[in-house]
Design brief:
The structure is a single chain. The protein is of the alpha/beta class. Helices cover 23% and strands 28% of the residues. It contains three helices and five strands. A five-stranded mixed beta sheet has the order 1-2-3-4-5. Helix 1 packs parallel to helix 2.
C-alpha cells in the first residue's frame, strides 16, 4: 500500500493561470499542470520540462487538470520539430478536448503508440 505522505510535490512554477508541480519519486519524473497554458506562460512550461529531465530520460506530464491550452503550450509539449522517436515527453490524462486539438493540428499521430510516438492516456 502506498503512503501519499511520502510523496514529495515540489512547486516548479506558478502564475495567475497555471501551477506546475513536480513529483520526484516517480520514474520518469511527473509534472502536473493545473490551470491554463498560453503564450504568456508556455516558455516557463518549456523551462520546467527541461529542468526536470534527468540526463537522457523522459518526463511524464499530467495534463488532465488543464482547463485551457493554446498552440504555444501544445508546441512545448509535443515538440513538433523533433522526430517522434526522440521525444522525451510523455503525456498522461490527456482530455478529449486536448486530444481533439492534437488531432486537428495533425499531431495526434506523434502520441499514438502504434505510430512509434510517446505514450498517451486519454481520460474517459
Amino acid at each position: 500500500m502506498s503512503d501519499d505522505a511520502d510523496v514529495t510535490h515540489q512547486l516548479i512554477y506558478e502564475d495567475g493561470l497555471v501551477r506546475i508541480t513536480l513529483t520526484e519519486v516517480t520514474d520518469p519524473p511527473l509534472l502536473t499542470l493545473v490551470g491554463e497554458i498560453d503564450v504568456t506562460n508556455s516558455e516557463e512550461l518549456l523551462r520546467a520540462l527541461t529542468r526536470c529531465r534527468r540526463g537522457c530520460g523522459q518526463v511524464t506530464v499530467d495534463t488532465g487538470a488543464l482547463a485551457f491550452i493554446d498552440l504555444s503550450g501544445l508546441r512545448a509539449l509535443i515538440m513538433p520539430t523533433v522526430p517522434p522517436s526522440e521525444c522525451w515527453i510523455r503525456l498522461h490524462n490527456v482530455t478529449p478536448y486536448q486530444r481533439r486539438l492534437l488531432t486537428l493540428m495533425g499531431w495526434y499521430y506523434r502520441l499514438h503508440p502504434e505510430a512509434g510516438g510517446t505514450a498517451l492516456r486519454v481520460q474517459p
